[in-house]
Write a structure and sequence with these properties.
globular, 13 strands, alpha+beta, six-stranded antiparallel sheet, four-stranded antiparallel sheet
Length: 322
């Protein structure tokens, strides 16, 4: 196996990589202090804490095309980082980054409920079977490239039935869009060349569940907690179930009846039932009897299904406190 001399040097002397990362940290600090960047980063802190975008003029300017603010912001990123990477090609910029399929993401900053990112989409055509929505707002500016795209809007009738409406648009350099992600989602259909965008997104303080709807007829396909904290707790609850930790059943049953995120409570109830039928079913019956609880109807329906399939559960129900 041939090992490049530059890589061999890094392997033989770890201090070289440490020096490279220290240099990248200093480069990032210099970028954040740049006159084209610092005011926007300061505004990001205020915006993430809940301030309206109009009260954050430097940040707002990035998404209104004001005097080329977005271009100056991106140019500063390149001006500071490209020379550092040319000198130390194996150094890593001090930003979280990811790559999935045709999409690459660079997290430039996070503050409170807001994050500022750069997204690069490789050339290609993209198909969608569903439209996803979350309780957040998003602003996006095209820095380079072009794309065919559409906004899919979800409108609910008085009876609660969702309908999807599509608006086609073409994104070109300098174009900006603002989206209420609770009812609007942007889908990129085709990019003839790599398209790079700057994106600002802020989650709601108490986010409603995230949803996915079928594009064909608008029906709801799945729903999940809109809170990152609740999602993490759901994963932990599910892990307890997969590990078959029966001693956790009473705790999960109690969690299902506490005031918390409905999605988390339902997950806790399901895992409690799976781990200990008696404990979980007692919680299910109690939940179905709670007037005004948003989970009561679903709990009642599940109780009826279980009793029909397993009549012996009626004995457990008789022992449940009124």
């Amino acid at each position: 196996m041939r090992i490049d001399p530059a890589i061999a040097a890094l392997r033989s002397d770890r201090s070289l990589q440490q020096q490279a990362q220290a240099a990248m940290g200093a480069t990032c600090a210099a970028w954040r202090a740049d006159h084209a960047v610092a005011p926007a980063i300061e505004d990001l802190d205020r915006y993430g804490a809940g301030a309206p975008l109009e009260a954050c003029p430097a940040l707002e300017a990035l998404f209104t095309g004001e005097q080329g603010a977005a271009d100056a912001f991106a140019d500063a990123l390149l001006r500071h980082h490209l020379p550092a990477l040319a000198e130390r090609p194996f150094a890593h910029p001090a930003f979280r980054h990811s790559h999935a399929g045709a999409l690459s993401t660079l997290l430039l900053g996070r503050a409170g409920r807001a994050c500022l990112t750069i997204h690069a989409r490789d050339p290609g055509r993209f198909d969608y079977d569903l439209a996803g929505y979350s309780d957040a707002v998003r602003y996006e500016t095209v820095l380079a490239g072009e794309a065919e795209a559409r906004i899919v809007r979800c409108h609910r009738e008085p009876d609660g039935k969702p309908h999807l409406f599509i608006e086609n648009l073409r994104l070109t350099s300098g174009a900006a869009v603002a989206l209420d992600l609770n009812s609007e989602t942007l889908q990129v259909l085709a990019t003839p060349i790599r398209t790079v965008t700057l994106r600002l997104q802020r989650e709601a303080a108490d986010p409603a569940p995230a949803r996915e709807h079928a594009l064909a007829d608008g029906r709801l396909l799945r729903q999940a907690s809109g809170s990152i904290r609740s999602s993490r707790q759901e994963m932990m609850v599910a892990l307890l179930g997969r590990m078959k930790r029966g001693e956790a059943a009473p705790v999960l049953a109690e969690m299902a009846c506490e005031p918390a995120d409905p999605s988390l409570r339902w997950q806790a109830l399901r895992e409690s039932l799976a781990l200990d039928t008696a404990t979980g079913f007692t919680a299910l019956v109690q939940l179905s009897r709670r007037a005004g609880d948003p989970l009561a109807p679903a709990a009642g329906a599940l109780r009826a299904q279980l009793v029909e399939a397993h009549p012996q559960l009626l004995d457990l129900e008789g022992a449940c406190p009124a």
